[in-house]
Amino acid sequence: MAEEKLLTVNVVTPDGSVYDEKTPMAVFRTTVGELGILPEHIPLLASLEIDEVRVKVPNTEGKFDEIVVNGGFVEFSDNVATVVANSAERKEDIDLERAERARKRAQERLKKARQEKDTDKLRRAEVSLRRAVNRLNVSKH
């Protein structure tokens, strides 16, 4: 039986490495849609949405590692996908209580920004809410 071809996925933030594993496939939500990368994919650079990176666990039937990313970009070349994000978190490291508190704070800021008709505060509150909801959604998979 032929050995499974693998690529490496690295997720890094200003605080350091969050994830570094080999995989037969990784899936990213970019600003233009979902992107699946297999070994030997052509080089690319893409902006990421606030979403999750899914990395297939080698030699399993459909099991994926999930990493929350808050935007950033993915660069792929030489069989290495490097994700650079301001913040990222592995699914198993998500603190549900903290994420729920962040969601509530963001909803309160959103409500206040709407009342004040402050578009700058509104945009920031919407991003904060998307980040908190993303963390909650991934933690519940």
From TrEMBL:
Can the keyword Magnesium be found in this entry's annotation?
no
The record's InterPro entries line, in alphabetical order, gives: ATP_F1_dsu/esu_C_sf, ATP_synth_F1_dsu/esu, ATP_synth_F1_dsu/esu_N, ATP_synth_F1_esu_C, ATPsynth_dsu/esu_N
GO MF terms here are: ATP binding; proton-transporting ATP synthase activity, rotational mechanism
Q: Which residues form a coiled coil?
A: 89-123
Domain of life from the UniProt record:
Bacteria
ATP synthase F1 complex delta/epsilon subunit N-terminal domain mapped to chain residues: 7-88
List the record's Gene Ontology CC terms alphabetically. Answer: plasma membrane; proton-transporting ATP synthase complex
Ranges for domain ATP synthase epsilon subunit C-terminal come to: 92-140
- Identify its membrane topology class: Peripheral membrane protein
Record HAMAP family: ATP_synth_epsil_bac
Q: Which PANTHER family match?
A: ATP SYNTHASE DELTA/EPSILON CHAIN (PTHR13822), ATP SYNTHASE EPSILON CHAIN, CHLOROPLASTIC (PTHR13822:SF10)
Which family is this protein grouped under?
Belongs to the ATPase epsilon chain family.
Quaternary structure, from the entry = F-type ATPases have 2 components, CF(1) - the catalytic core - and CF(0) - the membrane proton channel. CF(1) has five subunits: alpha(3), beta(3), gamma(1), delta(1), epsilon(1). CF(0) has three main subunits: a, b and c.
Role played? Produces ATP from ADP in the presence of a proton gradient across the membrane.
Listed name of the protein:
ATP synthase epsilon chain
Q: Which organism is it from?
A: Liquorilactobacillus oeni DSM 19972
Print the organism lineage.
Answer: Bacteria, Bacillati, Bacillota, Bacilli, Lactobacillales
Which gene underlies this protein? atpC
